[in-house]
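Example 3.2
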Amino acid sequence: MSIRIIKPGVMTTLQDTGRKGYRHTGIGTGGAMDRFALPVANYLVGNEENAAVMEMGFPAPEILFGQNAIISLCGADFTAFLNDQPLPIWKPVYVKKDAVLRFGQPVSGNWAYLAVQGGWNAEKWLGSFSTNQVAVAGGHLGRSLQKDDEIRCREDNFSMLDNAVINWQLSDVLKNRVYASSQTIRCITGIEWDMLSEESKLIFTTGTFGVGINSDRMGLRMEGPNIDLEGAEELISSIVDSGTVQLLPDGRIVILMADHQTSGGYPRIASVIRADQPRLAQMKPGEPVRFSIISLPDAENALISMEQLLKEIKAGCHLNFEKFRKQ
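Structure, written as tokens:
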């Protein structure tokens, strides 16, 4: 045994960066809601970015470690404790056998990621460890983790006297390059943008919205001012992607997320840029959101900047991990 779930959480699943190459068959990409926190959690413990990671909503599970392990917690801050001692996030931590990880109150964010050195032992389905609960495949038995589930990981060869924080971390400066405090989420215009009236375009770009409480891994249902089409028009179901902003018949908008369908018939009025999707995924229900329209080149530059940041983090973490391994 590696770990055992003592108390189940809400929507605790094994995820990776997603299932690619099957959308033409109706199978979505899936993967982590926060595509920045997941790879960083892996980098901090010396893994490659696509190792299986535990994604946790709140309430998060209580976990018993059945062996020594090196772990990291990234993403949302759920006030983690290891044997009743505060556990930092965005840092690698050495955990001794029989330690218990639990969580207190949510401080920020929606999704926390628990990585372990060597990765969690997960079922690979169509090239990905990500849990697809519709197909009941991938991850752990194709479902969320339940009480008494046991998840294995690679045996840890390190030996330390007690639970200990290891001496590297992701700095606040680097985190803030992705999770800036701004309420503004950047978008590019969608295929059906010009179906909106000028007034509705103005509402979308100047109004204040909020993440609805009935949001989930499939999509964020936004609360706020209604948006109208200039004229009623029936659309053929077309390709959608993570970040697609769809206009519903009642005038509300929904932003598609990790478990989105592969096609849809609602107008695609905009698309949240990839670089802002991690921050959007971590926005709590009711948190105010404003949208701004940027150009496609600016969206591409923002993505390139985030990918370069991940490369720098990976190189630094792996260098530190190799030094630690040789101690």
